Amino acid sequence: MEDLPNGPEEQQEFSETEEPWTERVLSRLNGWWTQLVDAWQDWRANRPQAPTVDQEEIARWIALLSHPNDPQHTRAMDELVVIGKPAVPALLEALRSDTWIQVFRASEALGLMGERRAVWPLLRLLNHPNSNVRWGAAESLGRLRSRWARRRLRRVVLEDENRTSWGETVAEAAERAVASIDRTWVSRLITLFQVLFLLAACVVIVYYTIQFVQEGLSHRVQRTPEPTIAPSVTPTETIPPTPSPTPLPDFIPLGGTITGGIANVRSLPDSENGEIIGVLHYGDQVSVYGGATDTVGDWWYLIRLTRINNPATSSEVLEAGSYGWLHASLVAGTDTTQIGPTVGALETMRAGAATPTPIQDSRDLFTPTPPMTTTAPMAP
């Protein structure tokens, strides 16, 4: 910052005596306000003053309104409109005149002036016995565009079909006045509020109607239908038929001879699970009653000992006529193709029997009572 011409000492003294910025702003605003007030007062003092209207002149123009044949009749209404507010009290008083033409011209002048104080007097003129006066009152109310006159004008539209002396109906003038009133922003705003109010009322009515119906449905007594008692039916016990045992078919067993040195006879056609019930030797004769395959697919014969031809054979179970199982490779003279049909027929008949007997278990088969004969082989 540049130093003042008199040095830093004088610069410091100036800074200490300088006014704060707030005081400078306030002093400037105060100066502007003072100038504004002075300008307003000068304008009021120098503004043009409205010419003073002579009341006698107003009364003269009012009187001319009732003389249509006077050359100044038409000018009288124009002069009163130009005079304006000072002429309003005299015009309002003229609306009570007994001369219809004076009332007609006074109402027309008030409408052209836009004087709102004339609304209620003009509404009373809608009941005037002269149709020309009623027509002029409706026209003036249309110029004033007052919402207070709308309802009465609507009734005039529906009721007053009388015509003026020049042929126009009063209803047409009232209808134009209603249309003029409806074009104002106040009327449009009021119409909007009315529509919103009606919509809100409809919503409220619908809401409470739904609530009422729901409440009625919730409190309505539900009728429980009486249960229909079905006729009791006593079930008839069905006794299953007692199966009758089916006899096994008679068939001729096939003969066979032990070819192995030692042949173990087992209770089941299984070398691991079958129990050894006897041991036969080479040359012993057996009768083959059936056959079956084990888990690995080898054939086993269901046999019964017929003749002991080897002295090494000694088995009380087999000699008593019991059945047992032998591996097919230990029996000669019998083919599996011959055993198959016999086994199939036997299993079919046993499956259809009332008390089937599995042929896989030799101990379940019938054991004949006659003992077996033992014949020792001849010495070579």
Structure characterization notes:
This protein is an alpha+beta fold and 380 residues long. Among the domains are: 55-186, Leucine-rich Repeat Variant (Alpha Horseshoe), CATH 1.25.10.10; 254-364, Roll (SH3 type barrels). It is built from 13 helices and 7 strands. A 5-stranded antiparallel sheet has the order 6-5-4-1-7. Strands 2-3 form a two-stranded antiparallel ribbon. Helix 4 (73-83) packs parallel to helix 6 (100-113). The chain starts with 7 loop residues before the first helix and ends in a 28-residue tail after the last helix.
In a nutshell, what does this entry contain?
47% of the residues lie in helices and 11% in strands.
Describe how the helices and strands are arranged.
Layout: H1 8-17, H2 21-46, H3 55-64, H4 73-83, H5 88-94, H6 100-113, H7 119-125, H8 131-144, H9 150-159, H10 170-182, H11 185-219, E1 254-258, E2 262-266, E3 276-281, E4 285-293, E5 299-307, H12 316-319, E6 323-327, E7 331-332, H13 336-352
Antiparallel strand pairs: 1-4, 1-7, 2-3, 4-5, 5-6
Helix pairs in contact: 3-4, 4-6, 5-6, 6-8, 7-8, 8-10, 9-10
The helix-strand sequence is HHHHHHHHHHHEEEEEHEEH
Major sheet size, sense and barrel closure: 5 strands, antiparallel
Residue share in β-strands:
5-15%
What is the alpha-carbon Rg in Å?
A: 70 Å
CATH domain class name of the domain at 55-186: Mainly Alpha
Span between N and C termini? 158 Å
